[in-house]
Design brief:
Helix content is about 0%, strand content about 50%. It has a 5-stranded antiparallel sheet, with no helix packed on it. A 4-stranded antiparallel sheet has the order 1-3-8-5, with no helix packed on it. A 3-stranded mixed sheet has the order 2-12-9, with no helix packed on it. It is globular, with a radius of gyration of 16 Å.
Length: about 140
């Protein structure tokens, strides 16, 4: 599951140009065994761009449920996607959070986020696809 939040922990109602949003990826495993080598890929709509956590300080998200945090073993950060790799405890729900910047106004296709257990392709899942609308903050006249 993928959800968008404000920095204060409220669901995003409207995407506005230049806003910073929190993306929550939630992975649920119904299996009672630990799943190793889980890969979660979130490809963002063209109007959003991943804020690389390695480039500076991220705001403190005090509203996040720390008991459900997923601590991945590796994170691959691109401008248009993030890929998270790690171990998922059995029969549990874990969430991973990252920041994205709203960079382009318009209507965009939102690809599915997907999760799979590498080397066990029968264990996989994905979110729904959709549309994302980004408002322009331009209010002037020509």
């Amino acid at each position: 599951e993928r959800r968008y939040w404000t920095l204060e922990g409220r669901p995003v109602q409207n995407f506005r140009l230049k806003d910073l949003v929190v993306v929550e990826l939630t992975v649920t495993s119904a299996r009672r065994v630990v799943l190793d080598n889980v890969a979660v890929e979130d490809r963002l709509p063209a109007g959003l761009e991943v804020q690389n956590p390695r480039l500076g300080e991220s705001p403190l998200l005090t509203w996040v449920d720390r008991g459900r945090l997923w601590a991945p073993e590796y994170v691959d950060v691109w401008d248009d996607r993030i890929v998270v790799f790690g171990r998922l405890p059995g029969a549990t729900t874990r969430s991973y959070y990252y920041l994205a910047r709203v960079v382009t106004p318009g209507e965009f296709f939102q690809p599915a986020a997907s999760a799979q257990v590498m080397y066990r392709p029968e264990i996989r899942g994905q979110t729904d696809v959709g549309r994302l609308s980004i408002e322009s903050d331009f209010t002037g006249t020509e």
